[in-house]
Amino acid sequence: MSDLLEKYVRPEKNPGTACKGCGLRLAHRRVLEAIDELGLGQGDVVWGTGIGCSGRQTFVTWKGDTFAGTHGRVYAMATGLRLALPPEKRLILTVGDGDAFTIGFLHLLNAARRNVDMTVVVFDNLGYQSTGGQYGVTTPLGSRTDSSPYGAWEPNWTQGGFDVLRILKEAGATFLARHTVLQGHEPVESLKRAIRNPGFSLVQLIYPCVTHYGVQALGTRDPAAIYDWFRERTAGLIEGDPGDRFTTGILHDASGSRVEFSAAMRDFVASVQKGERHV
């Protein structure tokens, strides 16, 4: 990763804040690989971050322009930036599962509804690991955590017939995918397609937490054992019955099928100025 870090990441932010053995650095790398393979430079991307482990790892690491939005507000900020920035500028947001699917979910749904041109990358460590390892809305059922010592029992967004990505599809998102960071180049290809899509894209990247989820739910902090557990539970059929597995792949690709929000806004304003619309 040293070549990518030298090219894209501020030297004072290397090696980052993730715990030793954490899959978050690998998730960060996947995004940088996608950017690099698309031939994008520092001036082509504006990188926004949320809170939690993912926010700390990627906060102002990008050598180009960056911004941060706490507690689920990064999507609203990115919507305003999308209206102000040139259309060719890429907006990439790295957020956690809580930032995306709980406290920030309404803002996320509205960004999808509007089809705002942004790529949201959800770094999902299966719970609220930065605050001690409490269970969240993607924590596998039965998992022991700091706040579920007898096992997580509440329905979540990824099991029991639920899939948060299908909710986002119905909300209007035009590209949706899910991968684990251990799937080699597959997540990079999805990230590239997401970044190229002129509309709202989201890629959920599930990664292993060794400090809390590994210790509390799996009974080990050995990265090799934890990573093997993730590999054994990774399935390729995203539309299949997940059971206790992570169903992965591209759920929805309707790239370019809807008018992008800022383009629609510019057209609307132009028509009003010409007297074609009366409001």
Describe the 3D structure:
- The protein is built from 11 helices and 9 strands.
- With 279 residues, it is an alpha/beta fold.
- The strands form 2 sheets. The chain has a 7-stranded mixed beta sheet with strand order 2-1-3-4-6-5-9, with helices on both faces.
- It has helices at residues 2-8, 24-37, 52-58, 74-84, 97-101, 105-114, 164-171, 186-196, 213-218, 223-232, 261-273; strands spanning 45-49, 65-68, 90-96, 118-124, 175-180, 200-206, 234-235, 246-247, 249-253.
- Helix 8 links the parallel strand 5 (175-180) and strand 6.
- Helix content is 37%, strand content 16%.
- It has a single domain (2-273), classed as Rossmann fold.
In short:
The chain is of the alpha/beta class and 279 residues long. It contains eleven helices and nine strands. The model has no long low-confidence stretch (mean pLDDT 94).
